[in-house]
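Give me the fold.
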Amino acid sequence: MPGKYFDEFVVGEEYVTPGRTLTETDVVMFAAMSGDYNELHTSEAFGKKTQFGRRIGHGLLGLAISHGLFFRLGLVEGTAIAFLGIDSWKFEAPFFLGDTIRVKVRVAEKTPSRSKPDRGVIKFFFQVVKEEETVIQSGYKSIMIRRKQG
């Protein structure tokens, strides 16, 4: 099913993504891809000595997973033109291997294009939450979305 067009989104509407459990494989693959082998993410012995008491997931891994979970909703499937940016992103709490996270998404703003009438920009507010509703990350993502023609 195609995603929603710009005009079909309503400011204030909310969505919740499916959950996803952070695994050892996620951390290993992200460390390899990003080059971030910080012991806080890769060494259980090191993690035990920190304020967290164990390894934590990479903050940017959480940000990346939030984006993937958003796209699993299918809201902008075939209607998104471009991902434009991230604003005011906050890393509020750690997440650990074995934690299941999901994303609460709210339509925060809609701005029709002034130069191209076939599109507009939606600013979404994201909250990445763990099972017990702890917000671990939050911020805004802007996506350019097609308008329905005719």
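The chain has one domain: 6-146.
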